[in-house]
Amino acid sequence: MNALTLPDIAAQASRQALPLDWVGMCGIALPILIDGQRLAATADAGVSLDDGAARGIHMSRLYLALEMLDQQPLTPALLRTVLQRFLDSHEGLSNNAYLRVHTDLLLKRPALVSPLAGWKGYPVSIEARLENQMFHVELKIDVTYSSTCPCSAALARQLIQQQFLDDFANTPLQHEDVLTWLGSANGIVATPHSQRSSAQLHVQLNGEQLPLTELIDTVEAALGTAVQTAVKRADEQAFALANGQNLMFCEDAARRLNLALKRSDAVKAFHLKVVHAESLHAHDAVAESRWTRHPA
Ligand SMILES: Nc1nc2c(ncn2[C@@H]2O[C@H](COP(=O)(O)OP(=O)(O)OP(=O)(O)O)[C@@H](O)[C@H]2O)c(=O)[nH]1
């Protein structure tokens, strides 16, 4: 039996008495429960070190408090309980507690037409903090979609009109000939460019739920061109139609999302950013929008 006491460096006085804003651990692996799914996640757990004279915080106490997250569904109430435990275990040292949880939410998405479905991963971060006894929770969600440039679509249509004039000049129009021409690559000489795009949401929440799926559904419905999972030709054709019916500059996408998110009761405030990874350019087209709900 070792009679020696284990040295406790964290309990020593700091040589430079200075409070710190955030001290803790990043990238802790843990499973979490969301909507009945067990998901692999990483957590960043921290507290402020307000006692500037204390050498360090007690990392193990934060780590052990995270145990609750793998046993109960993730809710704002649970996050608050964990944060309170961070503070209770750092009495006299810390006033503020922080927890970020990163995961990929997996949702099964049906195909547009065929009776198929597939899984889609949505990167999600849930950020909670207990600062001066005020609890805040925010969500970050990335949603991927397709955007077709409305300017490019108009320019392509003009080229098709020009081709029509060239091909049918001084010819009596025959329904059958026009139909064949419309179905040929000679007729539809130009196509607009599309790009894989992402909507990056940062949302402050009202209420006691984490409405992840609801927010993702809201975003995808507002844009109309969510990227697909299982795709047969019938689905690809429906996707082409959806893109043609939802031509979007990044400004259009940002405005659609702004309007849709404002309508959600779960949202108190947001900062959204849409990024269109241009195929016309080697750089991205980007738009951002912020909003805060004012008390009624
Ligand atoms: N504060 C601090 N601890 C660190 C750091 N890097 C590793 N650790 C280790 O984290 C481990 C756990 O710290 P504590 O929570 O204070 O462990 P403990 O003293 O056994 O636990 P308590 O008795 O509850 O205080 C210690 O072995 C520290 O050495 C660091 O940068 N800062």
Task: Explain what the structure shows.
The chain is of the alpha+beta class and 296 residues long. It has one domain: Urate Oxidase, CATH 3.10.270. It is 29% helix and 34% strand. The protein is built from 7 helices and 8 strands, in the order ββααβββααβαααββ. It has helices at 59-65, 76-88, 150-168, 175-182, 212-223, 233-245, 250-262, and strands at 20-34, 37-49, 97-110, 117-131, 134-148, 194-205, 267-276, 285-292. An 8-stranded antiparallel beta sheet has the order 1-2-3-4-5-6-7-8. Helix 5 packs across helix 7. The longest helix has 19 residues, at 150-168. It is elongated and about 105 Å long. The model has no long low-confidence stretch (mean pLDDT 95). Bound molecules: guanosine-5'-triphosphate. Residues 8, 10, 56-61 line the site of guanosine-5'-triphosphate (GTP). Guanosine-5'-triphosphate is lined by residues 8, 10, 56-61. InterPro entries: GTP_cyclohydrolase_FolE2, GTP_cyclohydrolase_FolE2/MptA. It catalyses: GTP + H2O = 7,8-dihydroneopterin 3'-triphosphate + formate + H(+). This is GTP cyclohydrolase FolE2.
User: How would you characterize the largest beta sheet?
Assistant: 8 strands, antiparallel
Biggest sheet, spatial arrangement of strands: 1-2-3-4-5-6-7-8
Give unreliable regions as ranges.
none
What is the string of SSEs from the N terminus onward? EEHHEEEHHEHHHEE
Q: Write the CATH homologous superfamily.
A: Urate Oxidase
**CATH architecture annotation:** Roll
Helix content class: 25-40%
Distance, first to last CA: 67 Å
The set of bound ligands, ions and cofactors reads: guanosine-5'-triphosphate
Q: Tell me the CATH topology.
A: Urate Oxidase
Category from helices, strands and their pairing = alpha+beta
What would CATH call the class?
Alpha Beta
Instruction: Kindly give the count of domains.
Output: 1
Please state the overall shape, judged from the principal axes of the Cα atoms. elongated
The value of Rg in angstroms is 27 Å
Q: How many beta strands in the DSSP annotation?
A: 8
Range of strand content = 25-35%
Average pLDDT reading:
95
| Number of DSSP helical runs | 7
InterPro entries: GTP_cyclohydrolase_FolE2 (IPR022838), GTP_cyclohydrolase_FolE2/MptA (IPR003801)
Protein name: GTP cyclohydrolase FolE2
Catalytic activity: GTP + H2O = 7,8-dihydroneopterin 3'-triphosphate + formate + H(+)
Family: Belongs to the GTP cyclohydrolase IV family.
